Amino acid sequence: MSRERLYLFDTTLRDGQQTPGIDFSAEDKAMIARMLDDLGIDYVEGGYPGANPADTSFFREKRTKRAAFTAFGMTKRAGRSVENDPGVQMLLQAEADAICFVAKAWDYHVRVALGCTDEENLDGVRQTIEAAVAHGRIAMLDCEHFFDGYKANRDYALAVARTALEAGARWVVLCDTNGGTLPHEIDAIVRDVASVVPGERLGIHAHNDTGQAIANSLAAVRAGARQIQGTLNGIGERCGNADLVTLIPTLMLKPLYRDAFEIGVTEEGLRGLTHLSRAFDEMLNRAPNRQQPYVGSSAFATKAGIHASALLKEPETYEHVPPEAVGNRRRVLVSDQAGKSNLVAELERFGIDFDRRDPRLDGLLSEIKQREAQGYAYEGADASLELLARRRLGSVPTFFRVEAFRVNIERRYDAHGELKTFSEAVVKVNVGGDIRMSVAEGSNGPVNALDLALRKDMGELNAYIDDLELVDFKVRILNGGTEAITRVLIESRDGQGNRWLTVGVSPNIIDASFEAMLDAVNYKLLKAGAADGLAVAAE
Amino acid sequence: MSRERLYLFDTTLRDGQQTPGIDFSAEDKAMIARMLDDLGIDYVEGGYPGANPADTSFFREKRTKRAAFTAFGMTKRAGRSVENDPGVQMLLQAEADAICFVAKAWDYHVRVALGCTDEENLDGVRQTIEAAVAHGRIAMLDCEHFFDGYKANRDYALAVARTALEAGARWVVLCDTNGGTLPHEIDAIVRDVASVVPGERLGIHAHNDTGQAIANSLAAVRAGARQIQGTLNGIGERCGNADLVTLIPTLMLKPLYRDAFEIGVTEEGLRGLTHLSRAFDEMLNRAPNRQQPYVGSSAFATKAGIHASALLKEPETYEHVPPEAVGNRRRVLVSDQAGKSNLVAELERFGIDFDRRDPRLDGLLSEIKQREAQGYAYEGADASLELLARRRLGSVPTFFRVEAFRVNIERRYDAHGELKTFSEAVVKVNVGGDIRMSVAEGSNGPVNALDLALRKDMGELNAYIDDLELVDFKVRILNGGTEAITRVLIESRDGQGNRWLTVGVSPNIIDASFEAMLDAVNYKLLKAGAADGLAVAAE
């Protein structure tokens, strides 16, 4: 039975960037684009070149391999030609495979917001799309406020859609810009539009203002649309966009969609979805939503209640999909099985040799659970997890041991009567039996001072870690207030461009940072193959 | 035009109690029941008397005035009479107006989970409902796994529903127990069931496992159902139940529902919804979901982007409902693209008097942009923005001045040969001319030590800040690597439950934390009306 192709368009880096409190660094954006590309998203929207320097420079190079790297921007202004519209020119020059233009589809906004005539707006759409096509770009049009516009003036809304189509747009995307449209309205309107724009060129862009972004997206697909726009974990302006992390499993696992449609995500990609979703939240430095459909840590959790025992008897009749299909796991008090098979998969991923019957496996599992209860989050810190596992199962050399450290931060008026803050760290480290004491001042504060002092003199080990660089660190306070626990995630990089994440947990932010720092150094030494000979007697 | 009555059933205290990590105290339950009663919910389910002592004692008295106080439990077991079934007897003795019984509607589960015959299960339903009615209770039946059961054996699922109806059940509730049913399936199945059970006696109980609990509930209503079961903020087992806080505004504000249906919530109650939702999260001691539809702090927030300026011109066309209707408010976030109009909107929100032609306004705007270029993020830190604005435009007293501080973090082996880390801070503060020096040790590290030392002795100011509490702080490293800048966001809370966010930026994490801390304290002093008299001469 042949299935129709359904296309996924991700706007995490554009609409998602509009989320209050979210601000991607250039490194974040590059990493997110890679994640989406690997996942199998068809269109990855990278931002709005020309709107700000960051987005402009992000489009100096193509950021995806398989996905169409897509730029976002406005159609040309009225009263000027495409050639003389700097905004449009900026978009045409961007290193993008596709350009998603946005245009008003509500005649009222054309007058109020643009102050031009309905016809000028249509001309803008036509000429801009044609220019993009002429430049060899895949062109698409986001019809802003399409559904409100349709209700106010059906003919004009349809005229905007038709104009884009006739100008050569690959996709005409119907945007529920203020998120207020309800599923049955989406259904009726999309069916009507499909009589003008064939479904295989229709897209839907839904927001969650009534908690129905998912339902609206699926209603549009049932009505004929074949492109869905959304974001990772549903981030986005106001209440967010349609959550691709929820849509993908629904499309791939629910028979009605699975049997009718094909998307670019593989079953392996689907199994990686839980990890991807949580890694993304770590990048945003926020706690994952435990109740998030499919991937939340509670999504398949059952409290010992009326369901738990029956669940253990007949899981498949109590779970609407198998948790493993999305890389999640069942959580019922007592049952460890899911946990163990998860761990086994991780160890294989690390390439660690082990015997499934090795009792140390259970020891490792319970230690991980114990540590996660303390606040460690290994989802986002593979390197720390690998070190922990190798220490338990194999043996990781004790390359060095820190005997003591001291950090001093002082703010005082300097000689010129200005308030200045000084950070100094002293570290006493034991390398191969020699005690080495180093002191350093941190231009970036205490963690920087500690990092410098620690690596200043590690004797023969320095050769292995000279190219190690701390590229990012994130701090989260768990159960705030007085019992606050601090979790620090450190991202490190070396000369070969390897990146790895380590985690530290402590009530003390300096301790937590130092623990993650030590893991980062030890991981590098391990991968660099620093020899046992350097080690002191294992503790 | 006469509207049909639609009934709301809240299960926060029963299904909501199944949420991993949520455990209500007796006081919590009583307060939640009152909140729901005042809101205008028709049925407030208080729990499962007989399942545990807490629920049993909760039903020793009626907890609602207007709402029907409802007990939850199972229908009688096979092989014994209602009189000899302790569970059912416990329910009949509970101080409840209504009893919601749960029964299997899937013949497969009748065999596997109950181990009785289909007919015995039907008998149990009939006799239990009849007994409840005979005891003068409003009786209703939750048909567990109804939709899966219907797909597996339509006739039996319908037989269970019909049996309850004929036995005198006021409501037959169709439960999507594992949450996997999709809206169009709900629509088709409920329409079919409505041919057996009249819609005015049909209810829907939806879960959010595909992110469509709201859509499923509304689909059922459109198909004929007239009772919706849900919870506050959508708490509940796994991914949660249908969120009544999202459903209520949709039913009251969206024309299609508003014109067709009437619910027990008044417009005044609706205006209190944002407060109720956040107060409930306070009770759960968790941060409210900023992206929650209608009531989230971001639900009507727009970053200065392509929409902001137009939004200010024509809010009603950019907002699907008026924020005030649910007690929420519009927020146009100042961010690096901020224009003067956004700033003006913010200042008005702060209640700051100013003259639009005041040149200091431009000074303030350029200072904000300059600071945001340095890494400050005011969109997430209202309190710091308000302080900055008031300092520029009006005058904020200099309540105190920190002359110097010193923080010492030391890790060393203690007397028992264990590696321990000690954090100590010394702060020299000038209050009203007196220099006060305080020292404190931080059980939670250096920031904690600084916080304690700073507030330890501020003289007469202490009276204003005794109830100040640091509830969360977030750290973000901007442009990582060696030029790293640290941004710290601190969330504070006081005794009246006010929460405010402040920001600090510095290459030094301790400096950044301290700056945000100072803003938090100054903001509290400002709001508490600490007098000028305490101030030293303004700098």
Automatic annotation (TrEMBL), chains A, B:
Pathway annotation: Amino-acid biosynthesis; L-isoleucine biosynthesis; 2-oxobutanoate from pyruvate: step 1/3
Enzyme class: transferase
Domain spans labelled Pyruvate carboxyltransferase: 6-271
Alphabetical keyword list: Amino-acid biosynthesis, Branched-chain amino acid biosynthesis, Isoleucine biosynthesis, Transferase
PROSITE patterns: AIPM_HOMOCIT_SYNTH_1, AIPM_HOMOCIT_SYNTH_2, PYR_CT
EC id: 2.3.3.21
MF annotations from Gene Ontology: (R)-citramalate synthase activity; 2-isopropylmalate synthase activity
Signal peptide: none
Pfam family for this entry, one: LeuA_dimer
GO BP annotations, alphabetical order: isoleucine biosynthetic process; L-leucine biosynthetic process
Protein name per Swiss-Prot or TrEMBL: Citramalate synthase
